[in-house]
Amino acid sequence: MTTLKQKWAAASSSTSLKATSHAAADTASYRKAKNRLPGLAVPKSTTPTTKPPLTFPGQLAQSTVRGYATQKQATAYIHGDKLYDIDKVRHDFPILNRLINGKPLAYLDSAATAQKPAEVIDELTRFYNEYNANVHRGVYKISEEATAAYEEARAKIARLINAKSPNEIIFVRGTTEAINLVAQSWGRANVGLGDGIILTEMEHHSNIVPWQLLAKERGAHLKYVGLTDDGHLVHEDFRQHLESGGIKLVTLTHVSNVLGTINPVREYIREAHKQGCRVLVDAAQSVPHMPVDVQDMDCDFLAFSGHKMCGPTGIGVLYAKKAILEEMPPYHGGGEMIREVHLYESTWRDPPYRFEAGTTNIAGAIGLGKAIDYLSEIGLRNIQAHDQELTEYMHEMLGKVKGVKIYGPANPRTKAGVISFSLGDVHAHDMASLLDEDGIAVRSGHHCAQPLMDRLGVSSTTRASVYIYNTEDEIDRLVESVERAGRVFKI
Ligand code: PMP
């Protein structure tokens, strides 16, 4: 196979000119977008934003650590007109300076949460240092600045997923809250006795439990699309459930957080719409990793989390089509979501504000806006290509280790960024602890997908997941460490 190193090497010689012109073009479009916001200006930084990275006990000099992680590779990578400088990307993440058990941190758990670049961390600090105020309330300068930055973050999200309008973007705490919002607001109003909801056996608990709660309350039925032995959805199950009638909603994940399977959501949405059903897409594992276009996909709802895409925790997004949002009753009651309040009744604001009761996570939204700037600068197509190549490399190299079983699709091209595996009968927690000794962070357990574990016939797996800052060298370290586990556990 052509390795990433070779591709980087081939690309690196011709990148700098393109990088310069791209950066200039991007700055121009960013300014243009900012100028579209009526009347309010986002505050300019008055303090330097780049601070020295935090230091930790036992930390090596930065260059030594980075030398370890990058010495075997060239530094640039291009898709289309976007420059991907892996060395620069790694320098942007202060946490990658950490040593774990004397070794550089190899963070292979981005499916759980992604690391944060200094730009995002600095923007949070700048918000609190310079323009912390509540939004949509004050008529004073810093409140107007906070409001502008908050609403600009909403507009950035709309552009990222190609929503028709920022008013289709609701700030929530994360994917989990987005799905609960749909279940409790749209679901209670639209799902009744005997109705059906289609899910799949590869859903995260956050796309199962809210529907169980709703189904119990409304007397509705849940119907599951099963999985083939290599981790794809059984299309025939889906068709049969749809044709059984009474289906109100199809809710499915775009990318499995355990198997990495990329589901053909566009096709499923087309078929569901023909039967008059709404479709919710859990995009927690896709929006951070690939271009997602809600108009092209034509989903009715889309949910994702900021923390998996370099943004802060506690902020996420529910996208829904405007016409659907307008029909939906509020989810939470409180300040800011009302038009008028009287003693015995109230009226609501239009979406998205109807669904953002109380003081929301203002800093989180602004931080997420910055994370989107950061990812857009690299380019979502670039990110997808990088993740894809690392996934393929990891699949190939791990697959060669004696005793390793990889779950999910045998063809890594149908997987995005995630590989679940086991080694003989070694418990996943033992594996993860052993990898930690080598400075490698992976997830072990059921990954909040117990029905999927049942389908696979296991109680847990070890999961390695990659993102923008990971390198082929880190995959090599993972493979060496898994081989070491094989020797330790005599597999
Ligand atoms: N769905 C999927 C596919 C996920 O991977 C996750 C996070 N592991 C969630 C939903 C829940 O996301 P959050 O915890 O950010 O609400």
Please provide a brief summary of the model.
The strands form 6 sheets. A 7-stranded mixed sheet has the order 6-12-11-10-9-7-8, sandwiched between helices. It is built from 17 helices and 19 strands.
Binned, the helix content reads: 40-55%
**CATH 4th-level superfamily of the largest domain:** Type I PLP-dependent aspartate aminotransferase-like (Major domain)
Strand order of the largest sheet: 6-12-11-10-9-7-8
Q: State the low-pLDDT regions, or none.
A: 1-43, 45-75
Global Rg: 23 Å
Q: Which architecture of the largest domain would the CATH scheme give at its second level?
A: 3-Layer(aba) Sandwich
Q: What's the overall average pLDDT, rounded? A: 87
Shape, per Cα inertia axes: globular
Give the bound compounds: 4'-deoxy-4'-aminopyridoxal-5'-phosphate
Work out the helix count.
17
> Strand percentage, roughly?
15-25%
Largest sheet: 7 strands, mixed
Cα end-to-end separation: 28 Å
User: What's the domain count?
Assistant: 2
CATH topology of the largest domain: Aspartate Aminotransferase, domain 2
Total beta strand runs: 19
Structural class: alpha/beta
Name of the CATH class of the largest domain: Alpha Beta
Describe it.
This protein is of the alpha/beta class and 491 residues long. It has two domains: 2-37 and 100-115 and 381-488, Aspartate Aminotransferase, domain 1 (Alpha-Beta Complex), CATH 3.90.1150; 124-375, Aspartate Aminotransferase, domain 2. Helices cover 42% and strands 15% of the residues. It has 17 helices and 19 strands. The protein has helices at residues 4-12, 16-35, 62-70, 86-91, 118-131, 141-161, 175-190, 209-218, 235-243, 265-274, 294-297, 322-327, 362-378, 380-399, 428-437, 450-456, 472-488; strands at 76-79, 82-85, 99-100, 103-104, 106-107, 169-172, 196-200, 221-225, 247-253, 278-282, 301-305, 316-320, 338-341, 346-348, 404-406, 418-423, 440-441, 443-445, 461-465. The strands form six sheets. A seven-stranded mixed sheet has the order 6-12-11-10-9-7-8, with helices on both faces. The longest helix is centred in the first third of the chain and has 21 residues, at 141-161. The model is unreliable at 1-43 and 45-75 (pLDDT under 50). 4'-deoxy-4'-aminopyridoxal-5'-phosphate binds at residues 174-176, 204, 206-207, 253, 257, 282, 284-285, 305, 316, 448.
